[in-house]
Amino acid sequence: MGDEKPRCILCNEPSTDDDPLLEVRGWIRVMLGQDGMAHHQCMAMTANDAAFSKGDVPWDISGPHPALVNLVETKRIVPGRVFEPGPGLGHDAVYLVSNGFRVTALDISKKAVSMLRKRIEKLGLDVDLIVGDVLRDGPTDGEFDYIFERSVLQTLPPTKRAHYVLCLTKILKPTGEYIGIIRGPRTPMPESQPYAFTRNMIEQLLSAHFRDIETTRVPSGFNNSRSEYFLVIACRR
Ligand SMILES: C[S@@+](CC[C@H](N)C(=O)[O-])C[C@H]1O[C@@H](n2cnc3c(N)ncnc32)[C@H](O)[C@@H]1O
Which domain holds residue 2? Predict the structure, then answer.
């Protein structure tokens, strides 16, 4: 008695050294409507399901990100296999597949994947869709030319980021490239998601497994918002 490990308020499993519980905070707390301690993946799954079910999707910019459109139009990226973690409503996946790319997309939210599946079917397009956690369930066959992600890194707490970057390397071909649209610095820097990143933080994080890291300021994609975002392109080491 008294030595029992705390349990996740969402799955009721105890905290472990490999997967410690985190405090429910910020946007996640608003979506869950409760306080307490939970596993990161339980929070991500439950809060995002709630957001997509309610249609309360604050990151939606109603179309593909302009920086991605520019990369395709200028042929900086050319049709090949793309893995997209966290596609959400799927504007970028739909854009890529409509422009000749072959896309596999994986989202932790079942609701997001079912909504995106219906959209893809209605458009008569073909995207491989997977429900899963990119930190555990992503492909490891090293067959993708590109990883494209928008606003997924910003959902990961600091303790999960190095593992995320390692997972990305297993997805890419040896010549593959990571392309990310990443939330830039805020004052003060947030201590819960959505997190924010300086150029230095991005470079330090990626440089363990990536080289030739280009970080460019890009528009947020939101109407009337000048908030800072980065387009990051990096080659697998
Ligand atoms: C901030 S939203 C961005 C969605 C989309 N990329 C966009 O920009 O519109 C983050 C997305 O990542 C998904 N997600 C969060 N954590 C994840 C994880 N560990 N594995 C896979 N997907 C995850 C969420 O369900 C959500 O769809």
Answer: 1-56
